[in-house]
Specification:
The strands form three sheets. Strands 4-5-6-7 form a four-stranded antiparallel beta sheet, with no helix packed on it. The protein has strands at residues 2-8, 11-21, 27-38, 40-46, 52-58, 63-69, 76-82, 91-98, 104-110, 116-122, 128-137. Helices cover 0% and strands 53% of the residues. It is mostly beta strands. It has no helices and eleven strands.
């Protein structure tokens, strides 16, 4: 999936559009606007079940918005919808990843002050499993906690931890 921001000169708000490419870079789905979507700094991930999740910051509503696109790219499965707000800070810089059970993990920071990192968990259809919550807080007098200013700060880990011990033969 790929996102594109289109700025309308008459209305300086960014619309979210998406297109689909195969692994060879061939365009499978022409860029299509998502109705009712405005925002910045989108991130996308394909869940292990096939659906494509797209999330972005919507500063006009101070929310993180999410939509779920069918793996074919031809229809929306869910959304766009806003994640429940936590506190009074504007959320921004959302990042998505997936797990081996088909769930999608979202993390983001608070805009400007960077005191908190937030988390939410969605099922493979876009249902909210774990509501938005603060999972890390800066602990200094002037707290500063950051992850990624470009979104794309999470990566899936679908393997297993291996421990390798050295053995010496005598």
């Amino acid at each position: 999936a790929y996102t594109l921001y289109e700025e309308d000169p008459e209305n300086p708000v960014y619309r979210i559009t998406y297109g689909l490419f195969d692994s060879g870079g061939n365009l499978l789905k022409e860029f299509t606007p998502i109705a009712g979507s405005t925002g910045l700094r989108a991130d996308a991930v394909q869940a292990t079940g096939g659906n494509i999740f797209l999330a972005w910051s919507d500063p006009s509503k101070s929310t993180i918005a999410v939509t779920v696109i069918h793996s074919s790219g031809n229809q929306l499965v869910s959304g766009p919808f806003d994640l429940p707000a936590v506190g009074t800070r504007r959320p921004d810089y959302v990042s998505l990843t997936r797990d081996s059970q088909g769930r999608v993990v979202l993390t983001w920071m608070d805009f400007r002050y960077y005191d908190y990192l937030f988390y939410a968990l969605l099922d493979g259809e876009g249902g909210l499993l774990t509501p938005s919550m603060i999972f890390a807080t800066g602990s200094a007098d002037e707290p500063l906690i950051q992850s990624s200013f470009a979104s794309h700060g999470n990566a899936p880990y679908l393997g297993a931890w291996d421990a390798h011990l050295p053995i010496l033969s005598r």
